[in-house]
Amino acid sequence: MKKFALVTGASSGIGLEICHSLAKRGFNILLTSRSKNKLKSISEKISSQYNIETDYFPCDLVDQQGPQNIFNFCESKNYKVDILVNNAGYALPDAFEKNSVEDEENCIRVLGTSVISLTKLFVRKMIKNNHGKIMIVSSVAAFAPPAAIQVMYGPIKTFMNRFNDALNINYNSKGITSTALCPGYTVTNFHTASGVQNEMDSVPEFLKKSASRVAEEGVEGMLKGKKVVVPTKTWKIVVFLIKIVPRFVFDFLSGVLAPGRYEELKN
Fold first, then answer.
1. Continuous H helices in 134-210
2. Cα-based angle 111, 86, 101 (whole degrees, multiple of 5)
3. What Cα–Cα distance (Å) separates residue 186 from each residue in 182, 205, 211, 217, 250?
4. Lowest mean pLDDT among 21-35, 96-110, 140-154
5. What is the tally of structural domains in the chain?
6. How many beta carbons lie within 10 A of that of residue 212, not counting itself?
7. Full domain range(s) for residue 183
8. d(CA 20, CA 29)
9. CATH number at residue 14
C-alpha cells in the first residue's frame, strides 16, 4: 500500500505551498480542490519536479458527501494516507445580516464540518496503523477578538483549535498527532476570493507573510508533532500580546494596524 499526504485546497495559496514543502521531503501527494484542470496541471508538475508520485481528486467540500467521496477515492486506489492536511477554506465578504443561512452553512461546512468528517474517516485508519499526522490550517483569528468583517470566520477557527486539542488528548497515545497551523495575514488569493482585498491592502507590509514561509513552518512543526504552530516571530509576538494586553489597548492597535477589521465593534 502506497503512503501519501492528502492536502485539501491544494490548488493555490498555503495549500499549494504545503504540497511543495511535503513533496521536497519525499512524500507522495494527493491533491484535492474544486478545479479539475488546475489539479491535473499542478499534480503533474509536482510529480516531475520532486520525482514523487501524485494523484488528484476534484471535490467541492460544500457538498456534504465530499469527505466521503475523497475517502472512497483513496480506498479505491489503495492509498494509505499517513498525513492529512485540512487546508480548504474561504470566508464570506458581506455583513453577517446580509448573508443567507445557506451561505453561512456552506462556509461552516468547508471550514469546520468537512474537517471533522475527513479527520474522522482517516483517523480510524491511522489508529490501526498506530501512526498519523494531521494538520488543521487555522488562523491567528482563532485567538483574536471578534471582527467586524467575516463575523463567523474567527469563531469557527477557534472551534477548530479546540478540536485540534481534543484530537491530541485522545490520540497522541495511539501514535497520532494533530497540529493547528495559525498564520496571520498571508499573501494569497484568499482575500480577493473572499471579497476583502481592500482590507488586506491596508495592512502594513511587515504583517504580511508569504504562503511558502507559512507552509514551511507549518510542515516542519507538524512533522515534529507540535500541537500549535504560529508562523514567524512577528505573529508569535502578536498572539502573545493578544493574550496579555487589555482589550481596549488591542482595539486601538488593531484599528491602526488593520483598519476596518474591528472598527465597527467600537461604535
1. 153-171, 190-193, 197-201
2. 15
3. 11, 10, 6, 13, 20
4. 140-154
5. 1
6. 16
7. 2-266
8. 9
9. 3.40.50.720
Sign, CA torsion 67/69/75/81: negative
User: For residues 41 and 31, what is the distance between their CA atoms, to the nearest angstrom?
Assistant: 11
Bridge partners for 209 per DSSP = 186
| 3-class state of residue 158 by DSSP | helix
Please give the mean pLDDT across all residues of the chain. 88
Q: Could you tell me the three cell numbers for 52?
A: 514523487
Residues 211-227: tens digit of each pLDDT: 999 999 999 999 999 99
User: Residues 236-252: pLDDT tens digits?
Assistant: 998 998 888 776 665 65
On the 0-12 / 13-18 / 19+ scale of CB atoms within 10 A, 255 is middle
Beta-strand relationship, 2-8 and 79-86: parallel
**Which region, left, alpha or beta, applies to residue 78 given φ > 0 means left and ψ of -120 to 50 means alpha?**
left
Residue 155 and residue 175: Cα distance in Å, rounded? 29
Per-residue cell: 22: 511535503
